[in-house]
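Q: I'm building a small set of examples for a reading group on sequence design. Run inverse folding on the following structure and report the sequence directly after it, with nothing in between.
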């Protein structure tokens, strides 16, 4: 029911403008004057290294404040702020809405538990009558509530989505990326981030024409992404801040009781 995503990076990759997008391939990015160069000139290889660093970093879980705003069904929804808890094994996600809740005050998904269903504490009057309900994490309610399901939430999944999309575009000769240098991103807690912007000659799913990624300069985690369509129309933006790695989770952190605490 809740699609998050997450996404962020800087890279100055300008691909030959005289070739059509379908036949272009990513070229090494020159350093931007006055800016730190991207650690890896090839943006796809850089994302691969970001993933390798995450997987080798001994990260068992984390907490964060997750911000998102999305256009669903053609309508831009209110901004949401969510207290997010993620455990890597088994993949577990607990979300508590701090602002902008619509269908739920909190939601929980634990891979392999609860019949692989999402548990939620409904928002409004429904939540006062029924404390916990079970829903298909990829069902119709979920599709109406976010672009990504709760199963896809988190820092690693956001990076995996970006890597998969960019790698496919590169293989098809259609990857166009510009490195915008290191920028301090207020939505990510003023973290300095490598900033990468990908543009499309032809719109993709949901009319996407531009994606900007923000990769934390120190941790190499994708802490933000902004997705836009025609004429710069916002499709979705996702930011993580106040990230705490390997926090001491409560014994019932990923149990149904956590939904109403």
């Amino acid at each position: 029911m809740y699609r998050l995503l997450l996404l962020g990076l800087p890279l100055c990759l300008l691909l030959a403008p005289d070739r059509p997008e379908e036949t272009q391939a990513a070229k090494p990015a020159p350093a931007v004057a006055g800016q730190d160069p991207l650690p890896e000139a090839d943006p796809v290889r850089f994302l691969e290294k970001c993933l390798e660093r995450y997987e080798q970093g001994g990260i068992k879980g984390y907490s964060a404040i997750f911000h998102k705003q999305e256009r669903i069904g053609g309508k831009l929804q209110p901004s949401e702020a969510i207290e997010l808890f993620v455990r890597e094994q088994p993949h577990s996600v607990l979300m508590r809405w701090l602002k902008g809740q619509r269908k739920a005050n909190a939601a929980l998904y634990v891979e392999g538990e609860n019949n692989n269903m999402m548990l939620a504490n409904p928002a409004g009057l429904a939540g006062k009558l029924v404390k916990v309900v079970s829903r298909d994490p990829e069902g119709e309610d979920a599709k109406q509530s976010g672009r990504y399901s709760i199963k896809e939430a988190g820092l690693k999944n956001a990076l995996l989505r970006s890597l998969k999309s960019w790698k496919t575009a590169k293989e098809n000769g259609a990857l166009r990326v510009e490195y915008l240098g290191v920028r301090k991103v207020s939505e990510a807690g003023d973290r300095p981030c490598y900033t990468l912007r990908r543009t499309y000659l032809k719109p993709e799913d949901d009319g996407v024409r531009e994606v900007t990624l923000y990769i934390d300069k120190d941790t190499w985690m994708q802490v933000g992404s902004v997705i836009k369509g025609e004429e710069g129309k916002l499709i979705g933006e996702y930011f993580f801040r106040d990230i705490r790695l390997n926090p001491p989770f409560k014994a019932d952190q990923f149990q149904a009781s956590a939904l109403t605490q």
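Residues 135 and 244 are 29 Å apart (CA to CA).
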